[in-house]
Amino acid sequence: MQCTLKMENECWVSFNVVEDETGVIAYNLQKYGCPEAPDIPMIILGVSLSIVCIGLILLAVWKVLVSVHDKKEVAKFEAERAKAKWQTGTNPLFKSSTSTFKNVTYKNLYREEYNNDSLLVINWKQ
Prior knowledge:
The protein has one helix at 40-82; strands spanning 2-6, 12-20, 23-32, 110-114, 120-124. With 126 residues, the chain is α+β, with helices and mostly antiparallel strands. A hairpin with a 5-residue loop joins strand 4 (110-114) and strand 5.
């Protein structure tokens, strides 16, 4: 008699059973349909590469978005600069940090002059 059983590990077992005067004999035992064990290194490699690829794609998208935003900001800045009502060489908000003061108590007793040969000539005042 042909018998087929499903085992607890999802495998199918097929065998023939014969009963005679000495007892029951099973022969022609075949095992099939067993699930294969998962390939752990390939799963880890696949998950890791997926994470890296998704990260690179997100970085590329972010870079494109930032570049587009920066181009808009530069165009806006250039448009505002073109509409400026002050001279382009000076900034109306800038105030020089250096100041010149005259010391009224200082008496200069000599005068520096340069002749044609760029030689320093000191003339004493009287």
